[in-house]
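Entry 12.
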Amino acid sequence: MKVLVIGSGGREHALVWKLACSPRVETVYCAPGNAGTALQGVNVPIGVGEFDRLVEFAVREDIGLNVVGPEVPLIDGIVDRFREKGLRIFGPTAAAARLEGSKIFAKEAMVSAGVPTGAFHPFDDARRALAWLREQPADHPWVVKADGNALGKGVLMCDNRAEAMAAVERVMVEREFGAAGDRVSIEERLFGSEVSLLAICSGQDVLPLAPAQDYKRVGDGDNGPNTGGMGCYSPVPSFPPALVEFCREKVFAPILRSLEFTGVLYAGLMITDRGPKVLEFNVRFGDPETQVMLPRLESDLLDLLEAAVDGCLGSVQAQWTPRKAVTVVLASGGYPGDYVKGLPITGLRKASELPDVIVFHAGTKVADDHAVTNGGRVLNVTALGDTFADAIDRAYGAIHRICWDGMQYRKDIAARVRSEP
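Predicted 3D structure (tokens):
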């Protein structure tokens, strides 16, 4: 079988890498891909939004399965377009992708389905939002979210009313996130431990994947602005199988009863003193969660994705290695703000040659036969170990071999579980 992965980031490199391991796969194409996807697959110079060209390529090359990585083409209806042409594609329709495309729609769906989540207050007018906040206690914490897709950056954590009002100004008045800020959701701020739980879904069937602990803030000690994710680890000792089963029954199953969904449903969870509550839904593989999960997956990923597309997900299971995995994101200087592109990267081969280390490319491209930076999050260094301490040491040992001007990364990824067995 030929497979097409659509996207160009670290998540897509991990998908290409894992699918290329399947004995049933002849070739993995990636559109448009990056410097890393070209190592295990074949890059195709077609953008993720060029639906007509992607469909033409899939038909011409007789692609057996198409896999969509990023959220934007899903929200824009790429699955609908491919299905119209009779092409097999893994991912939700545009109607189902609204779970990520609109924070307010997702919250309304959660409340309607009885999914545990925090309270929220939607607004489509900045003056009304600010007037409502003025009536709230001055020291009350809030989360202000741009309703539309802001590429993971439209969530503003606020410690008090003044910060929440400033956040509304940024989103709705200053238009920091563009049209994504036409509406805002002002939400109860939940406290506890965050966990990412992804599940492959098809009809009423749910196949939970291994939980992962993500680090959103750019700086050590969870300081600085939110990012798309600076690293993660898996498994999560504080999230045992009983909680996974709870989420299958109380988080995923209720949504599937109310919304037709095929693809990956990603639940961002806060484990509060009142139990797990959903912070948000995403409708695709997480980034960098995919990069830490897939190296632990012992099953053939192609079998799982095909089972979902063909409506027989209940007939397959996912097998996982008990080994620990740690992923550390290497980012451009200045990220998540402005950053320079085109900087040469050194040490990639030396890092990749280390045992139990995989370097996934994210924001890279090839220039003059050399990998250069081409984004904010540039590389994802993943390491496996029999213990978390082993995985941590291997990941950072590999990182010390890689360099480019301004490279930044967190030094505390998985530190909280270092002493875990």
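Annotation: The mean pLDDT is 96. The chain has three domains: 2-93, 119-188, 193-417.
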